[in-house]
Amino acid sequence: MFAFFVNGGPGFMSVLTALLVAIFFAAWKAPRWVKEIGLFALAFGCFATILGLMQAFDAITASGPIPTEVLCAGLKVALITTIYGIIIYMVSLIVRVIQKPRL
Asked: How far apart are CA 72 and CA 77, in angstroms?
């Protein structure tokens, strides 16, 4: 699990982890913010992936042709932040469903 954290980029993954903690804090103090924090985590994860892909494509164009295996491994690593953002968004939806009052 720690390898995913490091491979996803410690800066971006730290912000996403802080947003996950913020969801649980918001569930206790400000329940209306739970979904919004989850949406922000999803958007931030997508932003981090796009930024990582831009850097990777810049490196590829500067170095010339690369093997397909290297490209696929890089794309797999680039998607870690998006997957983490989606998981955080799903957690926010679960927390919100649990908090909703029964009719």
From this structure: 9
Q: Is the pLDDT of residue 42 over 90?
A: yes
Give 68's contacts (C-beta < 8 A, 6+ positions apart).
none
**Cα 9–Cα 12–Cα 14 angle in degrees, nearest 5:** 100
How many whole angstroms separate alpha carbon 77 and alpha carbon 26? 30
The domain of 14 spans 2-99
Measure the CA–CA gap between 24 and 45, rounded to whole angstroms. Answer: 18
CA atoms of 28 and 22, how far apart (whole Å): 10
Look up residue 12 and give its amino acid.
Answer: F
* Confidence band of 103 (pLDDT split at 50, 70, 90): very low
Number of domains in the chain: 1
Calculate mean pLDDT across residues 18-47: 94
